[in-house]
Amino acid sequence: MAKKSGGRLVSSAGLVNYYDSEDRRAIHISPVSVVVAAVVIGAAVFILNALFPVA
């Protein structure tokens, strides 16, 4: 059998490498703001369901 050249697989078994972007034009959102937004949206949905039940 012939040896394969190179250390990586050709297809990488469907895995994709993701790299951190250091672009200053990219949108940067802190994890705290994401959690706060999720809590606010969840509270709004809860309140609207209490005020306007779907019966």
UniProtKB/TrEMBL annotation:
Keyword Transport: yes
InterPro entries per UniProt: Preprot_translocase_SecG, SecG/Sec61-beta/Sbh
Key word Transport present: yes
Topology of this chain in the membrane: Single-pass membrane protein
Record family assignment: Belongs to the SEC61-beta family.
Role played: Involved in protein export. The function of the beta subunit is unknown, but it may be involved in stabilization of the trimeric complex.
Protein name: Preprotein translocase subunit SecG
Natural source organism: Methanoculleus taiwanensis
